[in-house]
Structures are given as structure tokens and as C-alpha cells.
Amino acid sequence: MRRSLTLTTEAARHPFRASLPPHVFACSGEEAEPVPSRMPWRIEAEDIRHFMMAYCACLFGVSAYIA
User: Which end of the chain is more exposed for a tag (fewer CB within 10 A), N or C?
Assistant: First the structure.
């Protein structure tokens, strides 16, 4: 494995990032595509149904364990 003479990068503020080789931070010239914004999260009937199924299953499991 080929290692550079300088083992740290001063631009990286975290010790792990500073120990990475310079080619990791090199850009390929292409800019990253912008991430499309998500719609605001909303609670739907299916979410409530899944939560209640998980809650009842856990309640049943704990009560069966205690009994």
C-alpha cells in the first residue's frame, strides 16, 4: 500500500477524517445532484394500525413472560 508523506490533513477536523488519504476527498469534477426535498411527514391510518399491532404484540409478549 502506498502512503503519502503527510499522514494528516489539516482541513479535516476529525481525527479519523484527518487520517484518510487525500484521494478520498478529491472531487471528480462533477457536482452532486441536489437531493429532492421530501414531503412533510404525516401520520396516516396505516401508521397507527402498525403501531397498535406492535404495541399489542409487545404487551402480550411481556405479559406472557411475566405470567
Answer: N
Do 17 and 8 meet the contact criterion of CB atoms below 8 Å apart?
no
Q: Does pTM surpass 0.70?
A: no
Q: Distance of CA 13 to CAs 8, 9, 17, 57, Å?
A: 10, 8, 7, 46
**Block residue for cell numbers 405470567:** 67
Which amino acid belongs to residue 51? F
Higher-confidence residue of 37 and 19: namely: 19
DSSP of 1-66: ----S----TT--SHHHHHS-GGGT---SPPPPPPPPPPPP---HHHHHHHHHHHHHHHHHHHHHH
